[in-house]
Amino acid sequence: MSLSPASQPTVADLQRHWAGATPHAPALTDGERSFSHAELDARTGQLAALLKDLGLRPGDRIALWSENRIEYIELQIAAARVGLIVACLNWRLTGAEMLHCIRLVTPSLVVVSERYAPALAGLDHGAPRVVALGTEFERMRQLAPPGEVDHRVDAEAGLVILYTSGTTGLPKGALISQRAMVARARQFASDFGITAADGYIAWSPLFHMAATDFSLATLMLGGKVTVHDGLQLQRLIEVLDSEPIGWLVAMPGMIEPLIDALRQHGRPPRSLRMIGAMADLVPPHQIAELTSLVGAPYLNTFGSTETGMPPASAALLAAGQLPTSLSKRVSGSCSVRLVDADSHEVPPETPGEMTLRGPTLFSGYWTPGGLDRRDFVDGWFHMGDLFVRHADGSLDFVDRLKYLIKSGGENIYPAEVERALLSHPAVRDAAVVRQRDAHWGEVPVAFVALHGDGVDAAELLRWCRERLASYKLPKEIRFVDAEALPRSSTGKIQRHEIERLWLS
């Protein structure tokens, strides 16, 4: 049973608080346009009025297909005021993948930037209305009839849908409520001492939790968000030079160029509390050099779209030191259990699946018939990741219960790539495994058995490129005999054995 609407604040409540408390303090900028907290409140109020005038009602979905820009965050806050849900589309997906994501949420409105409008026009998405960001969007916002649009929105109401790769290869939409988003902001503040004085640079895609969660968190805490359209190293360093930043997200794929840019710059940031993410996927020497260059510790995270920063993102790796351990510390405001296949808690030093409960948890996966909550058992969310707990309470990551490749911040499930390969008429069998990579952390490598000759790796890559987003493409295709693929007694290909035999 959800709580009374009066029992918890919403995202819009907390953003509006700062519009009254510090109206002239900077809230949102893209380097060309800047808005104070009061101006942001006024703009999101206009936008909320527009959404209401378009006939949208609490619970309706808006599909948003755009690069990082100010309007992206404004739309999320306006949706919070009305009780709408913003489905944040991953612009890296192919047309077929994108069509699945749009149809999944049956949006009442699609908002698209000029950059992606031609691609949207080529899809039979079925949404009743499309609005383009830019001149049309601003005109409609300004002409929206004034009036009170703030409903008493229940904090359990959905706010955003963020897509994750599904174990069957199709993206799943994780519904994040306003309750969860507020809890994530509070956790960010309590675990790391983030205040209104700490800004945030939203350079990673806003369709991912790192950018959306912590942009909204920063605004709810009274701080300033600087929006970048992707990784722009020179602009990023200029912001670090001039403003205090709470957390700079750094992940595989961008750390090496960031180190090079910082070396050339020659001086540390003005004020940076912490840097990094996903330390397990970064070479230790890069962690030591990066933290030395910025003079801030590395944030040793382990969270997810579904959980936010929890369950285990409370540990910091000391600046300038080569880490000898990547053990995790449990985040605040959540309970964690490691369990066996029967959901019984395992003893210390025994691998078990990570399960947790707490206020930052998502509501479930969006489906046409209602929320799918099968990953919740007796109130605990099962993450599908194996950990070992030590006597001091620290946790070490062991492996993924559901085999997953994490490449440059993107989740890749092998089944999706295997399905594309297996759809080629010349492919007899295929197995996709992860390989460590100094640049991306991990990359997919495909082992393929053919029916005969007549097809090469270039042809299979071309085939996959037509069916998959570029980041999901195998970085290497190796041809093997079907009989050589290691299998279990039930006939399933054993990916860990492939790693051991051919990639170790």
What does this structure look like?
The protein is of the alpha/beta class. Among the domains are: 11-181, ANL, N-terminal domain (Rossmann fold, 3-Layer(aba) Sandwich); 335-399, Luciferase, Domain 3 (Luciferase, domain 3); 405-503, ANL, C-terminal domain (GMP Synthetase, Chain A, domain 3), CATH 3.30.300. Helices cover 30% and strands 25% of the residues. The protein is built from 14 helices and 27 strands. The protein has a 7-stranded mixed beta sheet with strand order 6-5-3-4-7-8-19, sandwiched between helices. Strands 2-1-10-9-11-12 form a 6-stranded mixed beta sheet, sandwiched between helices. α13 (457-465) links the parallel β26 and β27 (476-479). α1 packs across α3 (70-82), α2 packs across α3 (70-82) and α2 crosses α6 (135-143).
Instruction: Name the CATH class of the domain at 11-181.
Output: Alpha Beta
The CATH architecture of the domain at 11-181: 3-Layer(aba) Sandwich
Strand order of the largest sheet: 6-5-3-4-7-8-19
Report the sheet with the most strands, covering strand number, pairing sense and barrel closure. Answer: 7 strands, mixed
Please mark out the parts with pLDDT under 50 across 5 or more consecutive residues, or reply none: none
β-strand number:
27
Structural class: alpha/beta
Total number of helices = 14
CATH superfamily of the domain at 11-181: ANL, N-terminal domain
Fold-level CATH name of the domain at 11-181: Rossmann fold
Please give the alpha-carbon distance between the first and last residues. 50 Å
Helix content: 25-40%
Judging from the principal axes of the Cα atoms, what is the shape?
A: globular
Mean pLDDT: 93
Evaluate the radius of gyration. Answer: 23 Å
- Percent of sequence in beta strands: 25-35%
